[in-house]
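User: Can you help me understand a structure? I only have the sequence.
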Amino acid sequence: MSNEKETPAGVNTRLAHTGNDPRAFFGFVNPPVVHASTVLFPDAETMASRGQKYTYGTRGTPTSDALADAVNALEGAAGTIIVPSGLAAVTVPLLGFLSAGDHVLIVDSVYHPTRHFADTMLTRLGIEVTYYDPMIGAGLSALMQPNTKVVLTEAPGSGTFEMQDIPQIVAAAHKGGAVVMMDNTWATPLYYRPLDHGVDISIQAATKYPAGHSDILLGWVSANEACWERLLDAHGALGMCGAPDDVYQVLRGLRTMGVRLERHQASAFALARWLEDQPGVARVLHPGLESHPGHALWKRDFTGASGLFSIVLDGGGERQAHAFLNALRYFGLGYSWGGYESLAVHVSLGDRKVALAPKEGPVMRLQIGLEDVDDLKADLSLGLAAAAAS
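Assistant: Let's start by predicting it. Here is the structure, written out as tokens:
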């Protein structure tokens, strides 16, 4: 018998073969879409003890289990819950791990709807919220309080793409007894695995790259062994389950996520480097560029980059931002990202407390889709010319 270790399969091979077992479903390649509320029990004793795998539609089906199994393999997780949106993937674990009188630390460059939830729902429930500088690193220790129960990170930062030293933040948080959560939607588990870096709970808006086609809302939350049971309890208590058709579409999207991300990454890098030399651009905010302040952290911890970054226009305000957007032909004007089409949006940063907005000009977030790079360059040239002329 050979003592050689089996070589781990490549990422695209794993994406093609996780979360499905044709032998379990009469040889069909894809698992069935199970629409379920009521699940029947064979007898009263089994019903009383809930002694079977499936008990009710909100507590899992073969369809949701297929996606969760695939995600567990990608994330290296003890367990994964599936929820109806990316925002729900943030709110469910926060509600599950915070109580009245607790304190939560949230990175100041966080996704705006997360901030809105914290400033409204969490504060109304008697939870103290503090926003910290994304560049704080080990300095997080100074902000920890005896009642700090959760530290919520996001890297790169939403809109402005600040990098965080996650291992240092994890060390400071864990020393103070806090659970660390990370919104990892930008990198996906293909380019960064939070749980491998000490994070306790990994959050993903599956609406973005896993779904990939701008037509699904879904989220997932993956936990390590220590946090899994509490996360699962919160999920069951809140009844926040994903719809079966959406779950199936995301599982199908995983099969091509690797090759799509390769294209998103390559096109975004080409455009980001080109934009660095264009008149009218003060800065390009992409952590994969050597010019980015967080590039060393990105290079140390991440294995790739996605298709989302921002540029700072060289001067102007809302008028120039609107002129830039209105001149675009292939870039759609819309929120979200991760789909096949390119999008652009003027980033609103008025809610920042410590990670302040760039001073040079408006920040324009670009989602680079699957179009040809030369066409996108021509489109951005039109936008920059319009901004300069406005």
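Now, to help you interpret it: Residues 2 and 8 are 16 Å apart (CA to CA). The mean pLDDT is 96. Let me know which part you'd like to focus on.
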